[in-house]
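Handoff note, outgoing to incoming analyst
You'll be picking up this chain. Sequence as last confirmed:
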Amino acid sequence: MLTLIELQETYKDSGVEVVAVAAHESAASAEEARSKLDAWLNENFPKLNFRVAFDDTGAMNTLWMQPSFSVGIPTVFVIDRDGHIAFVGRPDKLHDILPQILDGTWRTSAQAKAAERERIAEDEPKARKQALKEQIRGKFREAEEIEDWKTALAAIKKGVALYPDNLSFRQAHVHLLIHKMHDMQTGLPALRQLIRDAINTNYEVMLHVAFFELFDPAYDYSKFPSVERFAMGKELSEHILALSRLKDDYSKAWSYRMVAAYYHASGNKDRAVELLELALKSLDGPKPISEVLKDGFLADLLQTLANYKGEKVTAMFVWLRRR
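Most recent structure output, in case you need it:
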């Protein structure tokens, strides 16, 4: 974003118009995704000097990214004065190339053709791999929608076999076995391995993914062996808390909020409440936290703490002010 702001300012009198396209926003609905995007832009770039478009149709992927073998985010497309795509690549390359595009010497030059050949040689294999992943995900989603668990399992097992380091495939595999098929004999070893790999690598996202397979309130754990569940939860929670000591205030608060769910579910409500109170204090630490992030997280913390203590949320606002 900062590179694009600088480019727009530098070339604003040369006919250059920057348009960003947000095409991979995650939310329950397009309206929610757009609202989150607007809030983020207003918070971080209140004086943005170019327009930001919003795509929830997949058109950026099907019409731009896939045909050009582009897989990285962000990718820049420069359309010249004749309407041709003169450049595809990273934004940081534009400072050197844009002057040549503006004077009309770049697109037909040997340098441009060589750069494009090099880009495609590097990105085409990645793009084909990405296309295969999407094909697997598509088959899995279609089978999942009609609860054809056998077909869904075959699809996701293929994904895990081809891409054993892909976290989304591994998570989907574990989730399908444990929460959809209730196949604990196969699912528990897969989850244990996910936890072991997360701890060994200290990969924070994997730690969180594994944790929520164990303690997401949206899931039914009646068929999950309690001894196994809480043993894995204890190991994960202790590791996450140990790592949190090295994190900033917001990350610490998030870790405390997450691990509190384990202690609450395992019956140690006092420890769960203690962690939530630590999370609240962390939000008021010396390092500034985005108000958008803070407000949303604060509401969740207050509601969860109220639930754990059997109090009303309005009372919790009084509690926070007293602190």
